[in-house]
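## Example pair
The file below holds two records. Each record gives the amino-acid sequence first, followed by its C-alpha cell line.
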Amino acid sequence: MMPDDRTMPDDRIPDDREWGAFTEEAPWVLDRNAIRWLSPVDRLRTAAQAEVPRLTTPGRLPPGVRVGTVAIRLTAAIAPWVWRKKRGRYASAEVGRADLSKRLRMAAEALGPSYIKLGQIISSGEGLFPAELVDEFKRCRDQVPAEPFDVVRLTVEQDLGCRLEDVFEWFDTTALAAASIAQVHAARLRTGEDVVVKVQRPSVAKLVRKDLEAMAWIAPHLVGRIPVAALANPPALVELFAETIVEELDFRLEGANMLDVAAVIRDLGQDGYVVPRPHPELVTRRVLVMQRLSGFNFDDVAGMQGAGIDTHAVIRTGMIAFMEGAMIHGVFHGDLHGGNLFVLPDGRTALLDFGITARLSQERRLAFLRLMLAATTNNVMGQMEALRDLGALPRDTDLAAVIADLGLDRPPIDPTTLTGDEMVKEVQRVVKALLGYGARLPKELMLYVKNMVFLDGAIARLAPDLDLLGEIANISMIFATRHGERIGRDLGFDPRNMQFDFDSVKAGLGVDLETDSLTYRELQARRELIQKRMRSTRP
C-alpha cells in the first residue's frame, strides 16, 4: 500500500483545518469522505462492543488452560500475604496493603500484556483504587519490553501488503516507546514526511480475548477475599476493562477516534489543542501511521516556563476542553496521562494515543450534563437521578434511601476534623452502603473521573498556586457564556434561572463554607493530613 501523491500539502491553509483541530503545517490534507479505512469503522465498533458480554460472562467450567495459569499466579501472589496477615506479621494495615499490591503487580507482569494493561489502568485511578495499589502499578507504565524489529517489520509488511522499503525511506529499528498493546517507531515516508508508526504486538488480540475469559471466570471468586480490591468490585472491573480494551485491538477505530476528537475540539473553538493527522491510507487493524509532532514533555515545567509558555493557561485550557467535549458532544479522550500529551513550543497541547476514547450516547450525555449541573446547584436528588441514568445505580433504586443512608441530606463534615479511625469507618460505611444498592462505575464515568484525577495531578506540577475556587467560578462563567443556551435547550430550562451554588463546590472540596480562596498547595496539604491520619490506623 503506497501513499498517494494527492495527500501531499500545498501552499495554502489546509482544508482539513476547517473541520479538525490540526496543525497549520500539513504533511497531507484529510478528506473524511475519501478515507477508505473509515468505511467499516461503525460496523467494527459495534462488533467489538458486542463481544464484551460473551467475553465477560463466566461459564460453569474454566475457559481453557489459561485460567489455570492465571489462578496459579494469583494464588502464588496472594497466599503468602494471607499467611503473614493471619499471623500478625505486618506492622500496620498500610504495610500489609503495600505488600499485597507489590505481589499483585509482579503477578500482572508475569502474566503478560493484558494484565499489564489492566495494571496501567489501575495506576491512573488515584481515588478510585487503594493508594498502595495505584502506586505499585505505576511501575507497569514503562517496563514493557519492545518486540524485536523483525517482528515489527513482519507485522507492518503483512498489514500494508508491501515491503517496508516500498513505503518508508527510513524506519527507526528502536522503538520510541513500548506499551502492553503496541509500540511506536519514528519513520520517514518515501514522499518525505516524518511520521510515527504504531505497531500492534502480533499475538496480543488473541491473548487479550483469552485473558478476558479467564478474568471473568476468576473475578467472582475474588469478591470479598482481597480487601485491597474491595472498592474495585472484581467482576465489574473486568467488565470495565473489557469495554475499554476491545476497541484498542483495531487501529482503524483509533484513527477514527483521532478524527472525531479533532472535529469536536474544532467545533468547540478550542485553539489550545491539536491532534496529529492519521495517514489517509496507511491505517490498518494493526498499523497506524500518523503525523509526527514534537514539544515539551507534560512534566517539563521548567522547560515550558523557560520558553515563555503560560503553564496556568495550559491547565485552564485542558480543564475546559475536556469538560466541553464530555458535556456538549459526549466524546472525549479517555486516557489522559503524561505520556499521551505534550506541549508544543507555541503553548498548544498535542493529544496522543486515542485507543481509549469515551463516547456517551445521547441519553447518557444528557444524564452527565444533569449530573454536572446538579453538582453546581447543590441539587442532591438531581445528582442521584443523573447517576442512576448514567448506569451507576440500578433503575429501581430508592434514591431517597441512598441519600439518607449516605448522609447526603446532612451538612458536610470537614474530614480534617476526624480521627484516622473515624475516617476509615466512614469510608467503609459509605462503600458498604453503595455496594448494597448495587452501585457500579460505568465506563464513561470511570474514564471521566480518571482524567480528572490526572488533571488534578497536572495542576500540582504546572500550577500549584492556582486559586481553585476562582478558577471554578471562571470556568462556570465560560460555560454559561458559550453553552448556556444549548444546555438550556438540551435540559429544558431557562439558563437565566440557574444559580451557581458555591457552597456545594466548597463542600465537595471539604473546606469551610467561609473559605474565599483555596490554592492547590493548600488543598494538597489538607489531603496529606487526611491520608496521614488514615495511614496511622491499625488493622
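Second record, same layout:
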Amino acid sequence: MGVALLDLSTGEFFISEGDDSHVSKVLQSMNPSEVLYSRARNKDFENLLKDQYYSYSLEDWLFSKDFAYEKLIRHFNTQNLKGFGVEELPEGIAAAGVILHYLSENKHSRLQHISRISRLDAENYVWLDKFTIRNLELLQAVHGEGTSLLDILNHTQSPMGARMLQKWIVLPLRELNPIEERLKLTQYFFENTDLGQILRQELSHVGDLERLISKVSLQKANPREVVQLKRSLAIVAKVKTICQNSNLPALIQLADQMNSCLVIHDRINTMLVDDPPIALAKGGTIKQGISAELDEWRQIAYSGKDYLLGIQKKEAEKTGISSLKISYNNVFGYFLEVTHTHKDKVPSEWIRKQTLVNAERYITEELKQYEEKILQAEDRIQNLEKSLYDQLIYEISEYTVLIQQNASVLARLDCILSLAYVAILNNYCKPEIDNSLVLDIKDGRHPVIEKNLAIGEAYIPNDIFLDNDSQQIIILTGPNMSGKSAILRQTALITLMAQIGSFVPASAARIGIVDKIFTRVGASDNLSVGESTFMVEMTETANILNNLGKRSLIILDEIGRGTSTYDGISIAWAITEYLNSLAHKPKTLFATHYHELNEIAKESTGISNFHVSVKELQNKVIFLRKLVPGGSEHSFGIHVAQMAGIPNQVVLRAAEILSGLESERSKMEINPNTGNVSSLQLKMFDSEDAISLKLKEDLKSIDVNTLSPIEALMKLNYLKGLLK
C-alpha cells in the first residue's frame, strides 16, 4: 500500500509505502483528521481503518501512478521526483497525487507553501504500534486527566517545537548517528544552561512560522499575522547569531541552515504599521509615505474638518459674509448657510438648495466635488491598501521555502532545548547508545510517576539488565500494587527516550538500539466490533508474536488473565517458551501473578525470576518496591481489596477461601520440563476409606452414554446418599 500525509496548515508532505501494518502504524503515529481511499478497495480500507478516522472514498482512476505523477511534477515544477527521493514509490506517489487533486476539487488553488515532499522510511524509526502508544501513555493518559510522557518532556517554547516533539516521541530513531547527534546537542545545553535559557527566552517570542507562511501562501494571513511573521524573522536573526558564536560544530551547522530573510523583514517593517488591525478592511494598515495617492485620500477622509474650515474661511473673506458657516445633512450633503441679512452678498455661481425662515442654503462646485471625494474616499483607501497589501503578500510568498526551513530548524532547536531543560529539572543522565543487544539500566525511574508522587515521597529506583543470551526474559512476580507495572513501563520509556535523543531517568544507562517496542498491558474490550476483553488481549499478543525481531523489546503484563486459571497459565507458559526458543531472541519483561511460571527458569537458559519485595509487619504489608532476584509466591490481593474499601466481612471470607485453596494448591506439582500439572484430584479421593472406594467403584461402572435423564438423577441421588 501507499500512504501520503499532508498538513495543509504547515505544508508538511510525507510519502511512504509498505504493507497494511506499516500503513496502519503511520496513521496511528500521525493521527490524520481525514483519510482518503480508493472506492474500489472499500473493504480492504474499511478493515484497516475500522472507523478510527473520518474517511472519504474516491474513484479508483484517481489512484493511478501516471495521473498522480503528472500532478506532482506540475505542482513542484520539476521534471521528475528523483530529487525528493520518492521516484521509486509508485503506490505512495498515487496517494500523494490524490491529495493534490482533492485539494483542487475543494477550491484550494494556492498551494505554494507545499514546496517539497519527504520520504517517511519505516526502517528509520522504532516500530510503535497503537497498543504501545496507548499503553505507555506517550501522548495522552489513558484516564484522560493523568499525565503523559509528552506532558513531562514538553517544555518547548514555540508551536513548531511542540508539534515536532510529539512526532519525535511517536517516531523514535533507530540509527546510531542521528541519535548521537541529538544527544550531543542535548548534552551541550545540559552543560551550558545560561546559553540554553537565552535561546529559550528568544524562542518564546517566535510565532508559528509554519502556519504563518502557509496562511501567506493561501492568501489568508491578516495584517497582525504578517507583523508577527516580521517579529519572528527578527528573532531568527538573533538565534542565528547566538548559534554561530557557539563552540559546538553541530550548533553552528544549525545556524548555517537558518536564513534571516532580512529583505522581506525590512519590506514588512517599511510597509506595515507596528500595531495594525486584525481585519485589513478596517484601514490603517499601510504606513504613511508608502503611496502618495493613499496619503491624499486619507487626508480627505481623516482631515475633512480642517479642509471644510479652509473653504469656509476662504469664501467668507471673498464674499464678506462674516456669519458664513458650512453644515451637513443627509438630504443635501455639505452646504453653505447664509442669513437673510447677507443674502445680497451671495455670488451668482452659488446654487441655492433650500430656503429657511432666517437663512438660505447653497452649494458650490468645490463643495460638490469634495463631497464626492468624501463619499468615495473610504472605498478608495480600502482598495489602495488591499492592493499594496496583496503585493506585499506576494513578495513574502516568494520566501516560503526559506521561512519553512527556518521553522524546521527552530523547531528542532526548541525540542533539544526542551529535552535539556527537562534533564536538568529532573536529574536525568546521558544514556550510552550502541549497536549491541544489551539493555542495562542502573537506578531506573518512571519519568511520569516520579513527578506525581506526594510531597516528601521518593521514587524507588531499580536496575534492569536484559540481553539476548544470558538474561533474555525476566519473569517478574510480586504483590499487587508493589510496582511491577511501573518497572515494566519505565524500562520501555527509558529506551524510547534515549532513542529520541533525550537524557533518561536513571543514574546510568546503556541502550543497545531497539527497533520495535511492544507492550501488552491492562484489560480492555472492544465490544462495538464484538471483541471481548480476552479477545483484545490475545489480538494484541498475536500482533507482538507475529512481528518481533532480535532487536525488539517486549513488555508483557498479565498475559492470560482474561480466561480460566489453567487456560491462562497454559497460554502464558507457552508464550514464554516460544519467546525463549526463537533464534532471534527478543528482550522480554513479563510481569505475572502466575507464580507457576517461576518453574520455567529452572530448566531454561536465558530466563530469570525476579520479584518486587514487600515486608509483612503486624498483619500489614509494606511495599518496598525494590526488584530482587527470585520468584514470589504471594500476591496479597486480599490486602489490596481491603485498602480499596471492600467491606470487612467480604475480606475475612476471602481470606478463609484463600486458605483452603492454597492448601489444595500445595498438592499440585508442575513439571518444569513439560509444564504438566499432576495431582489434581478432588480431596474426597485422597483417602482410601470405604466410602471413597465405593464412590470410585460406582463412578467407574457408570456408562453415561446409556443413562436416561431420570436414571442419571436417580444415580446421582444414590451417590449423594453414600456421603451422608
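Notes on the second record: The radius of gyration is 39 Å. Confidence is low (pLDDT under 50) at residues 525-530, 678-684.
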